[in-house]
Specification:
The strands form three sheets. Strands 1-11-8-7-5-6 form a six-stranded parallel β-sheet. With 301 residues, the protein is an alpha/beta fold. The radius of gyration is 19 Å and the shape is globular. It is 40% helix and 18% strand. Strand 5, helix 7 and strand 6 form a beta-alpha-beta unit. It has two domains: 108 residues, 3-Layer(aba) Sandwich (Rossmann fold); 132 residues, Rossmann fold. Bound molecules: ligand LMY7XDAE. Ligand LMY7XDAE binds next to helix 2, strand 4, helix 6 and helix 10. The ligand Nc1nc2c(c(=O)[nH]1)N[C@@H](CN(C=O)c1ccc(C(=O)N[C@@H](CCC(=O)O)C(=O)O)cc1)CN2 binds next to helix 2, strand 4, helix 6 and helix 10. It catalyses: (6R)-5,10-methylene-5,6,7,8-tetrahydrofolate + NADP(+) = (6R)-5,10-methenyltetrahydrofolate + NADPH; (6R)-5,10-methenyltetrahydrofolate + H2O = (6R)-10-formyltetrahydrofolate + H(+). It holds the Pfam family THF_DHG_CYH_C. InterPro entries: Aminoacid_DH-like_N_sf, NAD(P)-bd_dom_sf, THF_DH/CycHdrlase, THF_DH/CycHdrlase_cat_dom, THF_DH/CycHdrlase_CS, THF_DH/CycHdrlase_NAD-bd_dom. Catalyzes the oxidation of 5,10-methylenetetrahydrofolate to 5,10-methenyltetrahydrofolate and then the hydrolysis of 5,10-methenyltetrahydrofolate to 10-formyltetrahydrofolate. Pathway: One-carbon metabolism; tetrahydrofolate interconversion.
């Protein structure tokens, strides 16, 4: 391996510490930032992420609430939960854990969240604000990627960036953020012709396609910075107790990419931990905006 490892766990720990300091500051001004996370159903991975969000929120000194609805919850029940949280002055951030069960209309739920409390940055108002270069709530995973890129590369101005994947959660907002930092941005996807050749042009590669190990070293320009957003759980044998062992892999084939890249994020331990760190940062930002307090520096885009 020749690439520098971009350690998302260490970076996230620094953000958590900064957020905790800033939470103490806003508490001295008489306000406690509050985050409500809504989980519908029993998806095991979602339950782990939601627990982790609650734990981290507490550790930062924030108020934390978890609202669980059964897997067969109705759209009305979910919308009522969101409406209650919108009206609750103790709550500055609302997050509905995705994916939702398929009978629910996720777009309608997200767009029912008060945009000022939309700490996921998925509400159509925040999407529009980000796209037009205005102050927005910025989606947590792309924000975490941007922070790592800025720290590693300094200015992104003029750099060729290729984002692989066009999801609303990662690909599109990531492209907007890179554009905001004056990178030259291409969004590539499943229909892109000669994807390896497109990726080979890039100084910055952000892989967010959800296809394990798809990006290989021969796609990477020597010295490029590779941000792997993929979180793919793969079978990895059987444990002594007979249950399946799994391991997480990214969208990049780590060994071959690390042999060519200048820097790379691992999976696990790269982008994932930054997602929760940025959620806390966004909740703090939302709280400061709601109460007219100074926003912490370096925790927004
Ligand atoms: N409403 C939202 N739903 C989802 C989001 C989101 O940002 N908002 N993102 C993902 C899941 N997610 C947070 O919700 C998330 C994913 C992964 C990690 C993380 O720390 N991953 C670790 C590995 C953890 C493991 O072993 O499973 C890592 O990569 O090192 C945190 C948060 C989908 N839903």
């Amino acid at each position: 391996m020749t690439a520098t490892l971009i350690d998302g766990r260490a970076f996230a720990a620094r953000i958590h510490a900064r957020v905790a300091e800033e939470v103490a500051r806003v508490k001295r001004a008489g306000v406690t930032p509050g985050l409500a996370v809504v989980l519908v159903g029993e998806d095991p991975a979602s339950a782990v992420y939601v627990r982790s969000k609650g734990k981290r929120t507490h550790e930062a000194g924030m108020h934390s609430e978890e609202h669980r609805l059964p897997a067969d919850a109705s759209q009305t029940a979910l919308m009522e939960t969101v409406a209650r949280l919108n009206a609750d002055p103790a709550i500055h951030g609302i997050l509905v854990q995705l994916p939702l069960p398929t009978h629910l209309d996720a777009d309608a739920v997200i767009n029912a969240i008060d945009p000022a409390k939309d700490v996921d940055g998925f509400h159509i108002s925040n999407v529009g604000l980000l796209g037009s270069g205005q102050k927005a709530m910025v989606p947590c995973t792309p924000l975490g990627c941007l922070m790592m890129l800025r720290e590693h590369l300094g200015s992104l101005s003029g750099r060729e960036a290729v984002v692989i994947g066009r999801s609303n959660i990662v690909g599109k907002p990531m492209a907007q953020l890179l554009l905001r930092d004056s990178a030259t941005v291409t969004i590539a996807h499943s229909r892109t012709r000669d994807l390896p050749a497109v990726v080979r042009r890039a100084d910055i590669v952000v892989a967010a396609v959800g296809r394990p190990g798809m990006v290989t070293g021969d796609w990477i320009k020597p010295g490029a910075t590779v941000i792997d957003v993929g979180i793919n759980r793969m079978p990895a044998g059987v444990k002594d107790d007979g249950t399946l062992r799994t391991r997480l892999v990214g969208d990049c084939d780590f060994d071959s990419c690390a042999a060519v890249a200048g820097a790379i994020t691992p999976v696990p331990g790269g982008v994932g931990p930054m997602t929760i760190a940025c959620l806390l940062a966004n909740t703090l930002t939302a709280c400061c905006r709601a109460h007219g307090l100074a926003e912490p520096e370096g925790l927004t885009a």
